[in-house]
Amino acid sequence: MDARIPPPLIALALAVCGWALGRSGVAPQLVFTGQTELAIILLAAGLSCMVSGVVAFRIAGTTVNPLHPELASQLVVSGIYRRTRNPMYLGLLSVLTAWVVCLGQPLALITLPVWVWYIGRFQIRPEEAALHRLFGSSYTAYCGKVRRWV
């Protein structure tokens, strides 16, 4: 498994980087009507995705630990997992986007593609390999029906 750092800590580190980039003063702050409301909507959507993912795992009685997908006892394909294979990572992306909107710092936008790349490379790909080993053709069929993000 390539992942060694829990994804919420990666998101937190990127949030701090976004804040630091904004404080650099290189780019002017972006302020627009509805900015706070948009940030709140994105935050609520992200938290909802994450909670829905955790609840589905708990109902199935399988591990939520992203560092040890090989401990999964069930392939979860119900609830939010009918729409996205990675609701917790999608939720963290939405929360990070809410933070960027709240900051109003254009340079902080760089944290979003960094998140997608990092999580895809160091979290999702190793998780998918572990799930293929555990669940074989059932997981392959699931991947054919449901996209990674949305």
Can you describe what's shown?
- The chain has 150 residues and is an all-alpha fold.
- The chain has one domain (7-18, 28-145).
- It contains 4 helices and no strands.
- α2 runs antiparallel to α3.
- The longest helix has 35 residues, at 111-145.
- The radius of gyration is 17 Å and the shape is elongated.
- It starts with 6 loop residues before the first helix and ends in a 5-residue tail after the last helix.
Q: Nearest-angstrom radius of gyration? A: 17 Å
Overall structural class, as computed from helix and strand content, comes to mainly alpha
Q: Find the count of extended strands (DSSP E, 2+ residues).
A: 0
Low-confidence stretches: none
Mean of pLDDT:
94
Cα shape: elongated
Major sheet description: none
SSE string:
HHHH
Strand portion, in percent?
Answer: under 5%
**Distance between the ends:** 24 Å
Number of helices: 4
The proportion of residues forming helix, as a percent range, comes to: 55-70%
Can you tell me the number of structural domains? 1
